[in-house]
Amino acid sequence: MKEDIGVVLTTKEIAARFNELAQQEKWFDIQDELFAEDVKSIDPENSPYFGYAEGKEAVRKKGMDWVSRVEHAHHRSTTAPMVAENHFAVGRKVDITVKGFGRILIDEIMMYEVRDGQIISEQFYY
Question: I need a surface site. Which of 12, 21, 87, 121 has the fewest CB within 10 A?
Fold first, then answer.
C-alpha cells in the first residue's frame, strides 16, 4: 500500500497497515513501507538481545541480525494496535529458539511514534 503523492496517512491508517503486515509476519515490509529514513529503534537499556539503532539502514541491519539468529519459531503473535494521537502500541509474544540463548519467551509491548505519515521511532518494552 503506497500513499498517494501529497497524501499523508494518519496514525490510525499507519497502525492499520502495520497490523495487516504484522499479522503476516512481514516485518521488513513494515520497515520498507512505513519507516522514516531517520527512524530510531530502542530496546531496553540492559537488553541481552539488542540496543539502539538510528536510521532506516541501521534499523534494518538490527532486524536482519536478529532474524539470522532465530533457529526456530515455535509461536509468534501480535495484538491489534491501540492508537493514541501520534502513537500506537501492540503486544507481541514470541516463543523462539535463538542461537546463543536457546529457547526464549518474549512478552513485550512495542510502541511506535508517527510523524508526517511515517513511523519515526519504535521502542520495545520487555
Answer: 12
Q: Please give, one letter per residue, the 3-state secondary structure of the chain.
A: CCCCCCCCCCHHHHHHHHHHHHCCCCHHHHHHHHEEEEEEEECCCCCCCCCEEECHHHHHHHHHHHHHHEEEEEEEEECCCEEECCEEEEEEEEEEEECCCEEEEEEEEEEEEEECCEEEEEEEEC
End-to-end alpha carbon distance in the chain: 30
Domain ranges of the chain: 11-125
What architecture is domain 11-125? Roll (3.10)
| Per-residue pLDDT reduced to its tens digit, 24-76 | 999 999 999 999 999 999 999 989 888 899 999 999 999 999 999 999 999 99
Report which of 7, 31, 48 is spatially closest to residue 120, judged by C-alpha positions.
Answer: 31
